[in-house]
Amino acid sequence: EDWRSKNNISVRVGSECSGLDYCSGEFRDVILAYNSIHGYVSLLVCLFGTLANALNVAVLTRRDLAAAPINRLLKWLAVADVFVMMEYVPFAVYRYLILPAQEDRPHSWAVYMLFHMHFTQILHTASILLTLSLAVWRYIAIKYPSYSPMLCTDRRCSMAILISFILPPILCIPSYFVFTIHKDFTIDMSTGAAMKVYFVDSNFEGNLYQINFWVHAVFIKLLPCVILTVISAWLIRALYRANTRKKALKSYNACPTDTVVNGNGNIFTRKSTKRSKAERRTDRTTKMLLAVLLLFLITEFPQGILGLLSGVLGRCFFKRCYDLFGELMDVLALLNGAINFVLYCSMSRQFRTSFGQIVRARCAPAQRAASQTELQTTFV
């Protein structure tokens, strides 16, 4: 058995896979080399991502930002990412740092593995639905600005958030039955005695296995990716048109547009082609959300394709390829959740301003306390 396989799923590839050569060669060696350091890399990403998303929640819950539906969606996206990363830390510590040195695989570990698989899948699916809601929300706001106040209401935003957290446990029902705890025996190298080991494995027989991979690959991964690709392409087109219009306005800026008569009866011209502040803010928000969507697509599309191939090609591909790329897919998903704070800070002036206010508010009491202590010391 390959106990280093992802999620402690046993790898017992039978003779039916001996003639198949999926995911072999030097590329496989590169992936295996990364897998050997994945535990340390994932811990660093999780520690940074947990802090970053906690800051996201702190900023997006401020009174000046909390009311906007887009910010509410971003806040709950950060909440989902925080829980995923917090749960991944004990998994990574035990799975990659402690477990390799142990001979036994206790039943409690298998139970936790089963919980870890379903918990992360449910919350990651919630993140996918929240990202999809963000894209649809922005599409409506730009495509149909006159209908946006009527369609993009606070109530509909609350419904989108609620559905994003209620639907994933339902979509993941097939995996509850496909992956179960199994028991096997291995030889203790020090004593030579037989020893029980527990592990999580998938039940490959029956239609439920195929249904699970089709649901996971098509409905949870690929379908949202296709929708987001279409919306992202449209947003890029909208930004391109806005940029073209901006250049046209700059070239036209020297031409007078309005004639004004002042109180003395003098006639002068006024330029009015400058883009409004609200329009520039709209473009910045669209660019930021577009960066979030593109980062999401880079992360999710490969997972969806691998899942689809696992459903089409069957057990052999899953064991030889899907397991192989497991750690790489994990770290990409973690990076996707961790880097959003950097995107918000670099692309949103309002976010930077609010974040700076939080930092100053936290630092000010400490500075006042230090000043007071210094003053008291002086008088003593």
UniProtKB/TrEMBL annotation:
Keyword Transmembrane: yes
Leader sequence residues: none
Keywords: Membrane, Receptor, Transmembrane, Transmembrane helix
Subcellular location: Membrane
Spans through the membrane: 37-61, 73-97, 109-137, 158-179, 213-240, 289-312, 324-345
Gene Ontology terms: cellular component: plasma membrane
Every G-protein coupled receptors family 1 profile domain range: 52-344
Coiled-coil parts of chain: none
Domain of life of the native organism: Eukaryota
GO molecular function: G protein-coupled peptide receptor activity
Pfam families for this protein: 7tm_1 (PF00001)
InterPro entries in alphabetical order: GPCR_Dmsr-1, GPCR_Rhodpsn, GPCR_Rhodpsn_7TM
UniProt xrefs under PANTHER family: AT19640P, MYOSUPPRESSIN RECEPTOR 1, ISOFORM B-RELATED
Family per record: Belongs to the G-protein coupled receptor 1 family.
Protein's name in the database: Neuropeptide receptor A1 receptor
Annotated source species: Grapholita molesta (Oriental fruit moth)
